[in-house]
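Justification of computing resources. Each target in the renewal requires a structure prediction run like the one illustrated here; the chain below, 209 residues long, is used simply to show the kind of job we budget for.
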Amino acid sequence: MLLALSATAIVIVALLWEVAWPRLVQLTERVKTARARVDDPTVGYDPGRERRAEQRARQLLRSCVNEEEWAMYRDLGFLRVWGGLADGPGRGGNGATRDGAPYAYLVYPHKPVVAFLPQTRELLSEYCVEFPDETRPYGSARLPDSDDVLAKWMALTGDERRLISEANMHLPGRQVDPTKVRRDLWRLHEWERDRLRRAERAARQQKTA
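Resulting C-alpha cells:
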C-alpha cells in the first residue's frame, strides 16, 4: 500500500513538473530581460543621437572660431591655439620660451592639450582636462568631439592661466603619442603652406582679372 502511494506521488510530481517547467522558463527569461533593461544604460538609446549631437557641436564650433581655425579642424581634426602667458606653459622667470619662439597648443577631442614650440616643434607638456556631458542617461559621460574641442578652445582663449594651473600636467608622451603629435605638426605646416599658396594664387588671378 505504502509503495503504491509513493509511486503515485512520484507520478503526480513528475506531471506537475512537466506542466510547470515551461512557465518557469518563461518567468526566468522575463526576469533576465527586465534586469537587463535596468542594468543596460543604452536601453531607450537613440543610435542617431550621437551623430546629431556631433553635427550640432560642429555647427556651434564653426560659429565660435575664425575661418582659419574652422578649416584647420575640418581638414586636420584638431585646433592650434596660440599661448598668451608671459612666462609660457610650465616655464617661468625669463618671460620667454626657448630661443624666443612663441608657444602654442594642439587641441584634440578627448585627449590632453599638448603644448609645443612652433619654430622647433619641441613638445613641452601635456595638460589633462575633461569636460563631462551632463545630459544623462545615454550611456556615455563624454561630450561630442567638437563640443570637447570647443570647451578647451574657450578655456585656453578665455582663461589660459587657470586652465593650465588646474589641469594635470605631464611630460610629453604620457597619453598622446609624441610621434603622432610631430606628424600632426608636420601636417599642420604643410596645410598652412598649401593654404598660403592657394591664397597667393587667388590674389594673382584677381589682379589679372
